[in-house]
Specification:
Layout lengths: L8 E12 L2 E10 L8 E8 L11 H11 L1 H4 L6 E4 L5 H14 L1 H7 L8 E3 L20 E3 L4 H12 L5 E5 L3 H10 L3 E7 L2 H8 L9 H15 L5 E3 L10 E3 L2 E3 L7 H14 L6 E3 L6 H8 L32 H14 L1 H8 L10 H7 L14 H12 L8 H7 L2 H8 L4 H6 L7 H8 L2
Parallel strand pairs: 1-4, 4-5, 6-7, 7-8, 9-12
Antiparallel strand pairs: 1-2, 2-3, 3-8, 10-11
Helix pairs in contact: 1-8, 3-9, 5-10, 11-12, 11-13, 11-14, 14-15, 14-16
Protein name: UDP-N-acetyl-alpha-D-muramoyl-L-alanyl-L-glutamate epimerase
Organism: Mycolicibacterium hodleri
Function: Cell wall formation. Catalyzes epimerization of the terminal L-glutamate in UDP-N-acetyl-alpha-D-muramoyl-L-alanyl-L-glutamate.
Length: 449
């Protein structure tokens, strides 16, 4: 592939999708200028469901939804002004794709200064979907619970177990922290392998646009396919209330790194399921009513996971050669989780988990400032809100065991500022706190813990 010039592409087509022997592939083409095909670049996304499908062919509605959802990885390479869907879709499906791009690529557009990337013209032949009749789904069947290797899914798993559920655990691709958490849970699991086209990685190296895509949206649709093929109940996510709050406001838009974990995407996907004639309760987040602080309070009652859970991105790198074995100790996720757990577990325990005291490293000052609301803006990572990070740091300031630690002493001089942050809760939080779709029998798992 020669140098990749994003401006040389006029459109992207979503060409189609198929499933053969449990392997799903979706096909995309960036259409070059001129329109003779000489500058076109084609890609194929592959999801190997393996044994996770059994002998059943997945529901075509969900396969089509997966093809649409995976398209963002390839669209962003050039962010052309038009997306053409080659196969028939309903207007609600095109609406889903437009909203997915608008919310899920917000950070990408912000970082690359590409506001027009959020509003491509989405076209394609119309389809009138036939009434499929009764959904046939059993809401009382055991749930499918995605596992991410961090504290949130652990809290969901253990809450459901205590309530008498026997969830089937689920993961996309193989990562050691996920496998360790699954093993500790003692539950059965299913794994799916997803592969991004290597040509996209080559294009990125040659000038294609790159940036964050809504991976949780992709994994959510994969989970729906797996749950449906195995006659399971709902796909139960572990996305918390704090993920509803964005990072920055840009050109009048709320840019949220965690948009595909937010109530906005959860609502969009549930509405799309309804339009397909599928029960929207197939998908919800158990932890939506909780803040990160409340989740941390619950996680401390699961010490069997303390040495094995990891929220740092380093062990989850796509390139296995770049994966680390443990917490990096410097990224926003490391700093946020350390700050949150420090007053809850104590200095000795968090140092044992992370390998050293992150408050003793002066290089972490800017990162902690961003986390607690005294820096530039909320980091573009899966971290909670300013007020809860500030509350946790104030608790550390009050604990004798942290006296003399360099960053703790520095933040002690800024206690008044921290208390102002801790006393404020984002307006978005107040408006979204009451919105969740947790059915009563699942909500009981939260109230019982």
């Amino acid at each position: 592939m020669s140098d990749f010039d994003p401006a040389s592409f006029r459109a992207m087509t979503i060409d189609g999708y198929d499933v053969t022997d449990g392997v799903f592939s979706a096909h995309y083409t960036l259409r070059g200028k001129p329109s003779d095909g000489s500058n076109d670049v084609s890609f194929a996304e592959v999801v190997d469901f393996g044994a996770a499908l059994g002998e059943r062919r997945p529901d075509d509605r969900l396969l089509r939804l997966l093809a649409l959802t995976c398209s963002l990885s390839y669209f962003k390479a050039a962010a052309p002004p038009r997306i053409e869907i080659a196969f028939p879709t309903g207007e609600f499906e095109r609406h889903y794709l437009r909203e997915l791009i608008k919310g899920g690529l917000g950070e990408f557009a912000y970082r690359n200064s590409l506001p027009d990337a959020l509003t491509p013209d989405v076209t394609g032949p119309d389809a009138q979907l036939a009434d499929m009749g009764d959904d046939g789904w059993d809401p009382d069947a055991e749930p499918l619970v995605p596992v991410g290797g961090g504290k949130d899914s652990v809290v969901s798993i253990e809450a459901l177990k205590r309530q008498g559920f026997h969830p089937m655990l689920f993961s996309v691709n193989k990562f050691d922290p996920i496998d360790r958490c699954i093993a500790i849970s003692g539950l059965d699991s299913l794994r799916v392998m997803r592969r991004i086209d290597r040509r996209l990685i080559e294009a990125n190296a040659k000038g294609a646009h790159n940036g964050h895509v809504p991976v949780t949206a992709i994994n959510s649709v994969i989970g729906l396919i797996v749950a449906n093929a195995n006659d399971l109940g709902p796909v139960v996510l572990s996305n918390e209330r704090s993920s509803n709050v964005g990072n920055v406001t840009w050109l009048g838009r709320d840019v949220n790194h965690q948009w595909s974990k937010s109530i906005s995407y959860e609502s969009l996907l549930r509405d799309t399921l309804t339009a397909y004639g599928l029960n929207p309760d197939r998908y919800f987040s158990l932890l939506r009513p909780l803040s990160e602080s409340e989740i941390a309070d619950r996680f401390r009652s699961s010490p069997e996971y303390f040495r094995d859970f990891i929220s740092c991105n380093r062990p989850f790198a796509i390139d296995s050669g770049r994966r680390g074995a443990t917490w990096c100790g410097h990224c926003p996720k490391c700093l946020f989780v350390y700050g949150l757990m420090a007053p809850r577990l104590g200095r000795a325990e968090v140092e044992a988990i992370f390998g050293h005291d992150l408050y003793a490293d002066l290089d972490n000052r800017p990162g902690f400032e961003d986390i607690v609301g005294l820096g530039a803006h909320k980091p573009f990572e899966c971290v909670g809100e300013y007020y809860e990070a500030a509350e946790s740091l104030i608790s550390v300031l009050d604990a004798d065991e942290w006296r003399g630690v360099p960053l703790v002493e520095e933040f002690r001089t800024r206690r008044d500022d921290l208390e102002k942050v801790a006393a404020s809760e984002a307006p978005e939080q107040e408006g979204s706190a009451a919105v969740n779709y947790v059915p009563a029998r699942y909500a009981a798992a939260l109230t019982a813990t």
